[in-house]
Amino acid sequence: MVEEIYTAYLKVRQRAYKKRVPVFFVGYSLGGLMGCDLLLLQHDVSYDRMVLFAPALSITVEGYLLKALMPFPNMVIDSLSPIYYRSNMGTPMAAYKALFEAVDHFNKNANDKLNIPTLIFIDEKDEFVPFVKLNEIITQRKLDRWQVHVVRKDSHIGENVSYHLIIDNDSVGPQSGSR
After folding, report:
1. What is the pLDDT of residues 89-115, one digit of tens each?
2. Per-residue pLDDT tens over the stretch 135-153
3. CA 103 to CA 54: how far, in whole Å?
4. How many angstroms separate the CA atoms of 59 and 66, rounded?
5. Number of neighbours of residue 63 by Cβ within 10 angstroms
6. Of residues 23, 28, 26, 27, the one with CA closest to residue 10
7. How far apart are CA 9 and CA 35, in angstroms?
8. What is the rounded distance in angstroms from the CA atom of residue 122 to the CA atom of residue 125?
């Protein structure tokens, strides 16, 4: 997967150079983690800015309970997202294994190369990415160019929509706010 992301980055960088525009990275959840991890893995990768939506730089304790299912890499865990958000009906355990490995790599290797202008949007009640831990990472790694904006879902959205899902009006509401 890293090779595919790196290849895509090289294409973006080449196009940005030709057009004389900056390279911005935008990532949601696992995508946010993968973009940060790529920055740490490849010495020639750089972004001018990042925008991260609920980046999976850390996982809640409940998320780590899935590790018990690692002996079954072909098992697929059904998606809890509403059907119209799904690109797949579930996630294979092999993908969760890759997620856990990427989180471990990020936490062992995070350094000041990450300290570029970055906006993070996250709901404090996110069930998958621990808000407090994300702030600890920012503080401990001295990522003083990172700004966290808390997403608050509209009260009429209801309780059946995941707090991790913060991508459009249907998941946060038209009047949602951030601080």
Report:
1. 888 888 888 889 999 999 999 999 999
2. 999 999 999 999 999 998 7
3. 14
4. 11
5. 18
6. 23
7. 9
8. 8
Are the C-beta atoms of 122 and 53 separated by less than 8 Å?
A: yes
Query: If pLDDT is split at 50, 70 and 90, which confidence band does 70 have?
Result: confident
5-12: long-range pairs with CB below 8 Å, 24+: 5/34, 5/35, 5/38, 6/38, 6/41, 6/42, 6/45, 9/38, 9/42, 9/45
Q: Considering only the top CATH level, what class is 43-167? A: alpha beta
Name the residue ranges covered by the structural domains of the chain: 43-167
Residue 59 burial class via C-beta count within 10 angstroms: exposed 0-12, middle 13-18, buried 19 and up: buried
Q: Which residue has the higher pLDDT, 51 or 163?
A: 51
| Structure token digits, residue 109 | 């290797």
> Which pTM does this prediction carry?
0.87
